[in-house]
Amino acid sequence: MKKNLLFQIGLSLPIILLIGLIGCKNDNAQYSYPSSISLTIENNIEMNRNDELILISLSEINKYADDFNENYFVILLTGDEIPCQLVDIDGDNIPDAIASVIDLSANSKKNLLLKYNPVGEYKKNYPIRTQSNLSVKTDYKLENGYYKDGYFKSVEKIKLPEGHFPHNAFIKTEGPSWESEKIAYRFYLDERNRNDIFVKKVDSMITHIVGINDLVSDSKESYTQMTEWGMDNFKVGQTLGIGSIAILYNNEVITVSNTDSVVCIVNNNGPILSGVSTDYFGWQVNSTKYDLNSNLTISAGSRLTKTSLTITGEPDNICTGLAKHDNTSFIKSEDNEESEWGYIALYGKQSLAGDNMGIVLFYKKNDLIKRIEDDRSYIVTLKPNDGVVEYYFGAAWENELNGIKTESEFVNYIKHEQIKLSNPVKISLNN
Prior knowledge:
Number of strands: 31
Structural class: mainly beta
Distance between the termini: 50 Å
Largest sheet: 9 strands, antiparallel
Shape: globular
């Protein structure tokens, strides 16, 4: 009898391993989903959409199911469980939507099933396709404002200490970072407050290791040279970098440099969507102070960072832009295009690695006040709508895996993203 039992167990092990390799299937024996909501996702354009981000509002779900449990649910596509994630969309560090990504053919629709259990908890384990990181020094020695020795430890939230200044080695990579498989970004969490780019030669997550041993900030950090994963290949300086935040006042670009206090939170960090939310209190612009929340997110399979800004005090503009570099072509959308979104872009040898890279900024045409330039940057000024401004920025490096190799390919990529932004998928919920 024991021999037969062992034989049966031995036969079952390969089957179990095979199921694990195939991926998550619906209705696993140890889980129960007695309730469900059906969803229809529609793509109404003549274009395939791969890794299309789907955001399902929790408030909409609750209209159909007041017993929905955000701690115990799955999404099924043709009977198979697909990766999904609770996310914070408005930057308040409270989940308000479920995110997933799916592929959609041109002019097509797909039916999903959101299954849940009103009680209990289900811990999901999906392939990691996005990541965000914020790490600060611990066990350090503080000498004349510089954080020496110690090591970097990942945290979810920090309030900048008084007297914090650039290159004091308090924060790994000098600020938070976020990434998809394709590319990574960071911004300097100090008086510079500008966005930068990490290009990637791999499709794995790297921001948790970048700069981990760079305990001194001296412009000789390991990531300023090409590594096995890629490098920091973009020169920002006093420009607007890529999509940095500012206000245009008396024809001068005022970045978020003078503030009363700053709090940064890793509010999204998961397989589908990652990013950081930052509150800037008392941003001084001339004689006026503003409170600003910046919520930056990137989704699986995408090169684009979505920037969602909420500002108090009714400024007459928010401006952003792209750094000017030699040996680049300036590209822009035409004002008469039938598209909700416009763009400015640059392509050429603006990579510190000496190769080609494209950078792009998408903005809503209805928000546009004007496009200008100065000696450092191409600038887009936008009108806040009830204190809210949204735009996207992104980069494409020719040596990323399956990268965009030419200017014409980059322009084609921009136009595809413009069409998709202007024609979002339609999500319908049904009982």
